[in-house]
Design a protein that fits this description.
Blueprint: E1 2-6, E2 19-22, H1 32-47, E3 51-56, H2 67-79, E4 85-88, H3 93-105, E5 109-112, H4 116-125, H5 140-143, E6 153-156, E7 161-166, E8 173-177, H6 178-182, E9 186-188, H7 196-206, E10 211-215, H8 222-232, E11 238-242, H9 262-267, H10 272-282, H11 297-306
Parallel strand pairs: 1-7, 2-3, 3-4, 10-11
Antiparallel strand pairs: 5-6, 6-9, 7-8
Helix pairs in contact: 1-11, 7-8
The protein binds glutamic acid (GLU).
Glutamic acid binds at residues 23-25, 57, 200, 214, 218.
GO molecular function, one term: ligase activity
Keywords: Aminoacyl-tRNA synthetase, ATP-binding, Ligase, Metal-binding, Nucleotide-binding, Protein biosynthesis, Zinc
EC number: 6.1.1.-
């Protein structure tokens, strides 16, 4: 077993030009937590003098609500967060198909026609994951031929490796053993929808993304994404995970949980400068009561300096 470590230590050296992105799933109206992540992603791209991309992750057609793309764009503009290019994953299916074909040609994938119930049973039978971890698919279809009568998902035959990633902001390191803690995960579902982990890896690489700033909920997904990048011969971007916003009970805001939407604040006549200020203050920044996103750049630069970034851009 090898340990392939993608750790960063000491000072972070910045390649130029940096490319960052905000990649919302248009499944509902943006709430303040989404807005805070969007703000930080924008501040990061701009603090580095880089490009900023907006990518709608709209592959999961069953969950997508198309009107939210428009609302999200308006919310971002209202908050003063611009972008240099926009993408929609649903328009890039051939790009994912090509990448999948490469892995398949290399013998790294296999079709799987197990039902959800069969997989659950296999996990129970195999004693599953260590207590408290996500259930790990035990690779049943690696050895059993797929049933030609059923639609097949495509799984990645994960390498027998432990992958470690260090977050460039928190400096935390996470190591995961791929077979033991992750398992052969799905790249394309049996309804033909490309899976999030796969599309995100292909997109970040092909869009030249150097800096992935996103919510801390995706930190546990990072080692498998790094592993997939390596299998596809893609570079690994820098990862920065930021805390999710929580409500007064300490529970994370959720689109379905009735968290107030940015749209409601915008349409209700609230001033964007006060909302931006509230987002900054929720991070512990001593921002004035009204502030623009651009005026927060010094706060983010200070945070980056604390994390060991050396910024020579004068933007
Ligand atoms: N689309 C994901 C979400 O809205 C974010 C993906 C990412 O930043 O890697 O949670």
């Amino acid at each position: 077993m090898t340990c392939a470590c993608a750790s960063l230590s000491g000072m972070t050296v910045l390649p130029a030009p940096a490319v960052g992105r905000f990649a919302p799933s248009p499944t509902g109206a943006m709430h303040l937590g989404n807005a805070r992540t969007a703000l930080l992603a924008w501040l990061h791209s701009r603090a580095l003098g880089g490009q900023h991309l907006l990518r709608f992750e709209d592959l999961d057609t069953g969950r997508v609500r198309p009107w939210t793309c428009d609302t999200t764009r308006r919310d971002l503009e209202w908050l003063g967060l611009d972008w240099d290019a926009e993408y929609r994953q649903s328009e890039r299916l051939d790009v994912y198909a090509d990448a999948l074909a490469r892995l398949t040609a290399a013998g790294e994938t296999y079709p799987c026609t197990c039902t959800r119930r069969e997989i659950q049973q296999a996990i129970l039978d195999s004693a599953g994951a260590p207590h408290g971890h996500e259930p790990v698919y035990p690779g049943t279809c690696r050895v059993h031929a797929a049933d030609p009568g059923r639609p097949a998902a495509i799984r990645w035959r994960v390498p027998d490796e432990t992958v470690c990633v260090t977050d460039a902001l928190t400096r935390g390191t996470l190591c995961q053993n791929l077979p033991g803690e992750v398992g052969d995960f799905v790249l394309r579902r049996n309804d033909g929808v490309f899976a999030y982990h796969f599309a995100v890896v292909v997109d970040d690489a092909l869009m030249g993304v150097t800096d992935v700033l996103r919510g801390a909920d995706l930190w546990p997904a990072t080692p498998r994404q790094v592993a997939l990048q390596r299998a596809l011969g893609f570079p690994t971007p820098r990862y920065l995970h930021v805390p999710l916003m929580t409500d007064y009970r300490g529970e994370r805001l959720a689109k379905r949980g009735g968290a107030p939407s940015v749209q409601a604040l915008r349409e209700g006549g609230e001033a964007a400068s006060r909302v931006v200020s509230a987002l900054a203050r929720s991070l512990g920044w001593e921002a004035p009561e009204r502030v623009t996103a651009a005026e927060l750049l010094p706060f983010w630069r200070a945070r980056l300096a604390e994390a060991g970034f050396f910024i020579n851009s004068q933007t």
